[in-house]
């Protein structure tokens, strides 16, 4: 089998309402931007995956990608990983391209990727991952609504200048949902997006103060409390609190995770296969984490194709406990998050997400929607 052609689309799917992500203070998001790749082969099997798109950053890369990949065997994944490592020097994260190869491989074998990579489970417990900052009473009402919809776990964002206001929101949610619902919190300090307005910057002492306060609220983990490569600070923090420390969604490739794991930085690592190395590298990273008794619960906040890809790794590895389910109505809902799919990914009545079990990534792309909301750049 060889790759015969590649199409690439930059799409902007309209959201149902404006969304104000806490990790980009001052920015109002009205669309879900995605770069979607469609890989064709001489045997008629296609593969697809998607990354995040903002403006025109993918145009030059897409042309280069086609020049390097057409004529290659999609089963030679490690060879393609080497090409993508080289491509990083132009400033984009190309790892979702590797996932499209696995989509082809799974379809050629008639199996979902998670079974080919290990087949650890066929569903995973979901946590509703919210993204906006709201006053404590509004956050409590949203949390209760999420529990009523079946979620057994909820993640909140901590991005206020006075962290005591963050703690007040967590406490309000804990009172609203009771002790049986898991609460996770995310400070988004690992990668600070600069440019729209000022934002809080935590240091080690701030992170430790917050962590110790969260211990009494029964929080499951504190995510991204310090910059992504503050290995010493993360290690000191983890050793100074009983709260689990999580992160790693945008750390990249094996060397970053070697340092994070060998230095004892995290209890939970979260590399996203579309950001951090693709399925093959993330399977290796998960195995490294397993050796250190560290959980692997990947980041998924991109789009439906990206989430489907991460669900395949969740189904493959033994040390995954939770699935991030991005959901913050009215702006961020499954219908717009997964707009490029024929059907959105959903949570069942017990609060679990089923690993898509069709061949490849297990989901179907609606190419008419992609063409309606996107520009083909190659």
Overview of this protein structure:
The protein has 378 residues and is an alpha/beta fold. It folds into 2 domains: 3-111 and 364-376, Enolase-like, N-terminal domain (Enolase-like, domain 1, 2-Layer Sandwich), CATH 3.30.390.10; 115-354, TIM Barrel. Helices cover 36% and strands 20% of the residues. The chain has 13 helices and 13 strands. Strands 4, 5, 6, 7, 8, 9, 10, 11 and 12 form a 9-stranded mixed β-sheet that branches. It has a 4-stranded antiparallel β-sheet with strand order 3-2-1-13, with helices on both faces. The longest helix is centred in the middle third of the chain and has 15 residues, at 163-177. The protein starts with a strand and ends with a strand. The mean pLDDT is 96.
Note the overall shape. Answer: globular
Distance between the termini: 22 Å
- Tell me the β content: 15-25%
Q: Which runs of at least 5 residues are low in confidence (pLDDT < 50)? A: none
- State the helical fraction: 25-40%
Total domains: 2
User: Rg from C-alpha positions?
Assistant: 20 Å
What series of H and E elements makes up the topology? EEEHHHHEHEHEHEHEHEHEHEHEHE
Main β sheet profile: 9 strands, mixed
Q: Which CATH class of the largest domain is shown?
A: Alpha Beta
Looking at the overall shape, the CATH architecture of the largest domain is: Alpha-Beta Barrel
- Helix tally? 13
CATH superfamily of the largest domain: Enolase-like C-terminal domain
Helices and strands: which structural class? Answer: alpha/beta
CATH topology of the largest domain: TIM Barrel
Tally of extended strands?
13
Mean pLDDT: 96
